[in-house]
Design a protein that fits this description.
binds 5-amino-5-deoxy-1-O-phosphono-D-mannitol; 7-stranded antiparallel β-sheet; 3 domains; Rossmann fold; Glutamine Phosphoribosylpyrophosphate, subunit 1, domain 1
Length: 591
């Protein structure tokens, strides 16, 4: 995820900014850049790769500057695409986090008025918009320019001729660091903590101007007061945003990840290229681990909404199979884009002459080079080994693909999309109930075996819930289709084997209740994950993890977040090394 730093004060801006950017390295980045005001011009450096030693870089002396670590979203990692971006005359420099969803139309409009663009980024339009609005007052120009932006942004802007920084925030965080005679602005608290622990969190719609004597904040054109807060955390705590583990932080990022992925692909229409799916006879998903579970949800969605036949194979097994040659679209899902088994499966599909689509979270990853087409999830880098927010982002892309190629009447699809837009708020409600989930986790943290069951779309949710639990808590957990229990796993049930039942209120509901009765008859404690409107369920089970009601098709989104929290709290109570579980790696680059 990108990081922003700005400085104005009495120190050398280049040194402050580069060392502050290094404090944001844990967030992941592929390129970086710094701009410093020197006399009446801007000196800018941009580099691809890691920053390395601060002492290696020295820009012209100056006390005002901005910097950025970029995690590519629009355009590959390169010096040209790295921030800061400038206007036509190199007088205005901008760093930006977020996504400008209407950048393409703004770019065309600006080009028609003679603006020349040098990068592929959405950010560059901001510099050109400010240039058009600039009449000697940078703050006024920024206020006018941001009115044109759709999407999300945290920006910091500087001008070659003025000693000031102007920042604006909408749906992407920005914080002012308050020093003694010096001022900082950053996307994240760790960037400023070496210099000050007094901060002001900007709010949506805020525009701030920082100059040598202080700062002023406006919202909706009116000056506003914002409280100065003292950060009680160490730098290490702050990297995790105050959360105990990256995994918990990433679970809490789920609502924003859904918003960002929807912003990217859903406006009036679904912005996914339908040519990817033109003329296909069927779809074959290949993936590993959590991404494999996303594929299973995808199968359910695509077959249900389109009638197109879908197969799902473990990537590691596809390499031994002999798929029939047809007009199959092979879809490799991999958050890292570097999983060796998935890459091999995609390469094999290409050799067989199949069209290959990659769904990945990492721009420029190997999967994007192997595939014919790429759709990116917008989850930002995930640091915890256990996949959480990247799984939810994968599901969002799959809902959008299924809706895009659906054969259902448009009104039904519109209902689905409307409810998809409500999901971030519903996930926030689940996160607000974290204490309730944690107290249920407390009851089950001492067990050594657990089963997760589901039917229909609840089945992959059960598989993913079990995977989350086993990898971070080391409890042996199995996911099963609820109807399969009686064909073997019943032998394992009993009071020492709790069962988590993913109960969806669709055509599977009655059968699930029947299965739960069978499980209870074998004395296993049962925890249901269920919709809050389900009044029946508590009569059948011992505990209920309730999630805000939504349409059955969307329950993988709400139930999975609840199960991520359930697994997380069990692992925390057991004192496990949650972010780096034993024997596991974030990116599995060997077959
Ligand atoms: O990067 P990928 O999505 O290709 O990774 C696939 C699996 O290695 C990954 O999902 C793994 O199962 C996670 N640790 C699950 O949390």
């Amino acid at each position: 995820m990108c990081g922003i730093v700005g400085y104005i004060g009495f120190r050398r801006a280049d040194q402050v900014i580069i060392s502050a950017l290094k404090r944001l390295e844990y967030r992941g980045y592929d390129s970086w850049g710094v701009a410093v005001k020197h006399g009446n011009s801007l000196e800018i450096i941009k580099r691809v790769g890691a920053i390395g030693d601060v002492e290696n870089y020295s820009l012209a002396e100056g006390n005002v500057g901005i910097g950025h670590t970029r995690w590519a979203t629009h355009g590959k990692p390169s010096e040209i695409n790295a921030h800061p971006h400038t206007d036509c005359n190199n007088q205005i420099a901008v760093v930006h986090n977020g996504i400008i969803s209407n950048f393409q139309s703004l770019k065309e409009e600006l080009e028609s008025r003679g603006h020349k663009f040098s990068s592929e980024t959405d950010t560059e339009v901001i510099a050109h918009l400010i240039e058009e609005e600039y009449r000697g007052d940078l703050k006024e120009a920024v206020m006018k320019a941001v009115e044109r932006l759709r999407g999300s942004y945290a920006i910091v802007v500087m001008h070659a001729e003025t000693e000031e920084l102007v920042a604006a925030r909408y749906k992407s965080p920005l914080v002012i660091g308050v020093g003694d005679g010096e001022w900082f602005i950053a996307s994240d608290v760790p960037a400023v903590l070496d210099y000050t622990n007094r901060v002001i969190y900007l709010e949506d719609g805020d525009v701030a101007k920082l100059w040598n004597d202080g700062f002023t904040i406006w919202n909706n054109g009116k000056e506003v007061e914002r409280r100065v807060e003292t950060v009680p955390w160490s730098i290490e705590d702050a990297e995790k945003g105050g959360y105990e583990h990256f995994m918990l932080k990433e679970i809490h990022e789920n609502p924003r990840v859904v918003e960002e992925t929807l912003l990217e692909y859903l406006e009036d229409d679904i912005k996914i290229d339908s040519r990817i799916f033109a003329g296909i006879s069927d779809i074959l998903f290949v993936a590993c681990g959590t991404s494999f579970h996303a594929c299973l949800v995808g199968k359910y969605l695509i077959e249900g909404l389109t009638g197109i036949p879908v197969r799902v194979e473990y990537a590691s097994e596809f390499n031994y199979s002999n798929p029939p040659l047809s007009r199959t679209l092979v879809v490799g899902i991999t958050q890292s884009g570097e999983t060796a088994d998935t890459l091999e499966a995609m390469r094999k599909a290409k050799k067989l002459g199949m069209r290959v689509l990659a769904i990945t979270n990492v721009l420029g990853s190997t999967a994007t080079r192997v595939a014919d087409h790429v759709i990116y999830t917008r989850a930002g880098p995930e640091i915890g080994v256990a996949a959480t927010k990247t799984f939810i982002a994968q599901l969002i892309v799959l809902y959008l693909i299924a809706a895009k190629i659906s054969s259902l009447p448009p009104t039904e699809i519109e209902e689905l999309l409307e409810e998809l837009r409500n999901i971030p708020q519903k996930i926030r409600q689940i996160l607000d109930r974290e204490d309730e989930i944690s107290s249920i986790s407390n009851t089950f943290a001492g067990y050594e075996n657990m089963m997760y069951v589901g039917r229909g779309i609840g089945y992959p949710v059960a598989l993913e819930g079990a995977l989350k639990l086993k990898e971070i808590s080391y409890i042996h957990a199995e996911g099963y289709p609820a109807g399969e229990l009686k064909h073997g796993p019943f032998a394992l049930l009993g009071e020492k084997t709790p069962v988590v039942a993913c109960v969806v209120r669709d055509k599977t509901y009655e059968s699930m209740l029947g299965n739960i009765k069978e499980i209870k008859a074998r004395e296993s404690p049962v925890i249901a994950v269920a919709d809050e409107d389900d009044e029946e369920i508590e009569k059948f089970v011992d505990y209920v993890i309730r999630t805000p009601s939504t349409i059955p098709l969307l329950t993988p989104l709400t139930y999975s977040v609840a199960l991520q929290l359930f697994a997380y709290h069990i692992a925390r109570i057991r004192g496990c090394e949650i972010d780096k579980p034993r024997n596991l790696a974030k990116s599995v680059t060997v077959e």
